[in-house]
Design goal:
Strand content: 25-35%
Radius of gyration: 14 Å
Number of strands: 7
CATH class: Alpha Beta
CATH superfamily: YbaK/aminoacyl-tRNA synthetase-associated domain
Largest sheet: 5 strands, mixed
CATH architecture: Alpha-Beta Complex
Structural class: alpha/beta
Helix content: 10-25%
């Protein structure tokens, strides 16, 4: 469920004009699930790959559930219609919150999955905070 960080880093997906110091941030995207009144609640948490999402603190409160965890792979693939390892916050089913850590939204460029494992998207971090259902959250990641 996390974005394939090695793909963007090791295959040279960076634009030629970028130096190592200008390398885009690679967020980690995890589908979180929790249950409330018998209903599963899903959300995408987008945090920098160098950080960890505060799943059972901030993310859990945003989902309004007692406990949050990664959605099982088969469930995440079926719910999103995307490939495991390529799930992206762009094009998620309607009603899915997209929780974006403030550091991701502040990054000049990020690399995210494209829905399939064989390609990635490079875009301004601020764009993720403007997706439908997105909320930029300070402290989502530690």
């Amino acid at each position: 469920m996390a974005a394939d960080r090695r793909g963007a880093e090791s295959t040279g997906d960076r634009p030629a004009a970028e130096s190592a110091g200008d390398r885009p941030a690679v967020p980690s995207i995890g589908e979180r699930t929790g249950r409330r009144e018998g209903q599963a609640r899903y959300a995408a948490c987008v945090v920098l790959a160098t950080t960890r999402a505060d799943v059972n603190g901030v993310a859990r409160r945003e989902l309004d559930v007692r406990k949050a965890s990664f959605a099982p792979v088969d469930e995440a693939v079926a719910a999103t219609g995307m490939e495991y390892g390529g799930i992206t916050p762009i094009g998620l089913p309607g009603g899915w919150p997209v929780l974006v850590d403030a550091r991701v939204a502040a990054a000049p460029r990020v690399v995210v999955g494209s829905g399939v494992r064989r390609s990635k998207l490079s875009l301004p971090g601020s764009l993720l905070g403007r997706l439908p259902g997105a909320a930029v959250i300070e402290g989502l990641a530690r």
